[in-house]
Design goal:
Layout (H helix, E strand, L loop, with lengths): L1 E5 L3 H12 L3 E5 L4 H11 L4 E2 L2 H5 L4 E4 L6 H8 L6 E4 L19 H8 L4 E4 L9 H6 L8 E6 L2 H14 L2 E4 L6 H16 L19
Helix pairs in contact: 1-2
Bound molecules: NADP nicotinamide-adenine-dinucleotide phosphate (NAP).
NADP nicotinamide-adenine-dinucleotide phosphate (NAP) binds next to helix 1.
Length: about 220
């Protein structure tokens, strides 16, 4: 797949690197220094390269949006037309000091994003785990007990594509339903952040759902 990264920080830098290591064509974009994007591309290897948001959005199958909520309008404006693209968002609608959600209950960041780019197929994915766990999950991808990763979207084809990327990174994709389910997964991320950053066991945490036969 050809994948454009909009926001090459903790999430975008790592996910873009793993997509490239899984064999995809990746363009890293949107950092304050072009040299950072070039370094990421060099280290990711394969056919990864650095570009502008507009270049990252050109001729791609998938775009990953990984910026702070306050930067979404800016990066989308720089990217230009994203009609027809699968736009995967891991971006949470957090306030300026990252202490709370500015959209919740009756909508979600993912749904608000879909309103901004009605021609794109928005998928909410990857945002429910901390960046610190991504490389470890990738390294463990051959193990039988993969961690879960919930995703939601309205377009079935877009969902199937993103499920492939979720598997490529090493997770077991869990289809949570339509995009509006991001109203539940986005606040869940704050629980994950609490467990990742407030405990003494380190931030490299993921989650796994188990199903059981009902017993009477
Ligand atoms: N970090 C996590 O573990 C985590 C987990 C789940 C969800 N999320 C969500 O994912 C999204 C991205 O988080 P993150 O932690 O990856 O953020 P981050 O590390 O701050 O990355 C944001 C990227 O945007 C770039 N950027 C910011 N302002 C810019 C500007 N004015 N011009 C050009 N580029 C600019 C940054 O550039 P620089 O590289 O130069 O700083 C960076 O590459 C957020 O919405 C967050 O809520 C994060």
């Amino acid at each position: 797949m050809r994948i454009g990264i909009l926001g090459s920080g903790l999430m975008g830098g790592k996910l873009g690197t793993l997509f490239a290591r899984a064999g995809h064509d990746v363009v890293f974009s949107y950092a304050r220094e072009r040299s950072k994007l070039e370094g990421l591309a060099r280290e990711a290897g394969g056919r990864a390269r650095a570009g502008t948001p507009r270049e990252a959005a050109q001729d791609v199958d998938v775009l990953l949006l990984a910026v702070h909520w306050s930067r979404v309008d800016d990066v989308l404006a720089q990217a230009g037309n994203v009609d027809g693209r699968i736009l995967v968002t891991c971006s949470l609608p957090m306030n300026a000091d990252d202490t709370g959600l500015v959209v919740a209950h009756t909508s979600s960041g993912a749904e608000e994003l879909a309103k901004k780019v009605p021609g794109a197929h928005v998928v909410s994915a990857f945002g429910t785990v901390p960046s610190e766990v991504l490389f470890a999950v990738f390294e463990a991808r051959e193990s039988e007990r993969r961690p879960s990763l919930v995703y939601s979207a309205d377009d079935e084809e877009a969902k199937a594509t993103v499920a492939t990327l979720i598997r490529d990174v090493g997770f077991d994709p869990v289809d949570a339903g339509p995009l509006e389910i991001a109203r539940y997964s986005e606040p869940f991320t704050l629980l994950m952040a609490r467990l990742a950053y407030e405990g003494d066991e380190g931030p490299a945490i993921a989650y796994r759902f188990e199903r059981y036969e009902e017993q009477n």
